[in-house]
Description:
mainly alpha; Four Helix Bundle (Hemerythrin (Met), subunit A); 0% strand; elongated; binds fe (ii) ion
Amino acid sequence: xxxxxxxxxxxxxxxxxxxxxxxxxxxxxxxxxxxxxxxxxxxxxxxxxxxxxxxxxxxxxxxxxxxxxxxxxxxxxxxxxxxxxxxxxxxxxxxxxxxxxxxxxxxxxxxxxxxxxxxxxxxxxxxxxxxxxxxx
Length: 136
Ligand SMILES: [Fe+2]
Ligand SMILES: [Fe+2]
């Protein structure tokens, strides 16, 4: 990742999960740059990419947990479901300046700290389990 990201997310034991996390950080950087420039069309596009990526990221982990019978699946999915709803709500209103300000605050104050914590705990434990089941 070359130290270019805003935050270095902790590495987990499954390489494909790390790749997804790195991709998400790139989208967030693009989104924050568009917000800083107050470029409304670029914000709209990056916010859609962000919401889509979060959904794919969470769904993929959930599929893997189900396929391999990870016992604390409901707890991990519960954290995803909470954040899915937050992301969808905040990305839906970026056509207004007020919504864009809200999205910026959400990313910096809620999503990024949440993601660091989530990856350090839920994803870390899940990846350890999946790696023992041959997931790469
Ligand atoms: Fe993850
Ligand atoms: Fe997760």
